[in-house]
Amino acid sequence: MSDTIDQPEASTSTLSFIEPTMETKKPSVADKWVKPNGPPVGSTFGARLLSDEQDPFEHNAWDHVTLPEDFNLKAEEIMKLHHSNPVNEKLRDGYNSKPAEYWNKFYSNHEDGFFKDRGWLRLEFPELVACSEADAGPKTVLEVGCGAGNTVFPLLMRNENPELNIYATDYSSKAVQVVKSNKMYPKAEHGLGQLHASVWDITSKSSSSSSTKTKTDILKNDKEVTSVEDSIIQNTKNLSITNNSNNDDVEKSYSLPEGIKPNSVDVISVIFVLSALHPKEWNQAIHNLYTALKPGGLLLIRDYGRHDLAQLRIKKNRLIDPEIPNLYIRGDGTRVYFFEQDDFTNMLSAPSNHDPDKRMFDITQLGQDRRLLVNRKEKKQMYRIWLQVKAKKL
Ligand SMILES: C[S@@+](CC[C@H](N)C(=O)[O-])C[C@H]1O[C@@H](n2cnc3c(N)ncnc32)[C@H](O)[C@@H]1O
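Above are the sequence and the S-adenosylmethionine SMILES. Below is the predicted complex in structure-token form.
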């Protein structure tokens, strides 16, 4: 999935280096993420900066670049073309009705594709790696839309925390199968920590089968009454229970993956996944993540930004709906959205479904990561634009 999963190169810059110290410190797990030919430990990743005097064609890529003055103007021309040539209306509902099937097909076609060892995770999301340090204590990490395991396996294979539990979830059963068939599943060779993979749709509302049963069904079974009551007692503290209009069903306002209880997760990673949702699904997705996290727990997001190269390369008849800018269908039928910073601000600062007076998250980082890619042969300059978000559950 070359255009969807992007692994920035490791910078070879020596702009910063570690001062040698007298004591020899035991390397942390974070130190072990650095590849032999990667950046020196402690250096800032992506430190190849392009100055006015430099020739952009000197290297293949540059970090933290400023976009040229005419960039947005040119990009908007392409947006106009997309807008006036959307997907055929008759096909639109088909793409939106069973999106997981297109991902299943994707993973069936790429079954042999092994996970990528993403060195940049340590640099962009040190909070994730911190959970795997030997003395981190009990930690629960939830990876949403895990795909082939590009985040969970790099984390697990270097993990030194015996009390780390990683939950890898995806709504594509095929992706979950790929993860489960990896030789590192459910434990890596060193035996520390554990991986649990399951199928879960981040946009779903009620996951437990009991939540769709009628109250009469529930009352027939004492054991179920206990568990539903337990869950109601727990939920009323933080969560709303919504009864439907005829009061027959008890339905939760959220869904969580197998094995995850409300308020139990330390860190959630959602990497190039929210872009696969329809914007009308964002609220439920964020509500589910909010529910899973402990108060103070961290939500880590990385995804496509508006005007990213992948968006500018899209041809006609791919915009799903002219009313919704930035949402497209790829050639393989999978959806992709290109985010603006405000999308995340609005999503995460929305009030909680449980308490309209309370914001769900405090956004601690919301930034654009821009990288210039250079085709030296064709003298072409192309810009990758990703958004990165860190938010703390309030
Ligand atoms: C672009 S891939 C990214 C995979 C992985 N996060 C990575 O970065 O390598 C998007 C993944 O999100 C999953 N996905 C899309 N919509 C989802 C949903 N509603 N619930 C759970 N997973 C979803 C897809 O099945 C796919 O595996």
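The pocket of S-adenosylmethionine is lined by residues 4-5, 103, 145-147, 150, 170-172, 175, 201-203, 271-273, 276-277 (CB under 6 Å).
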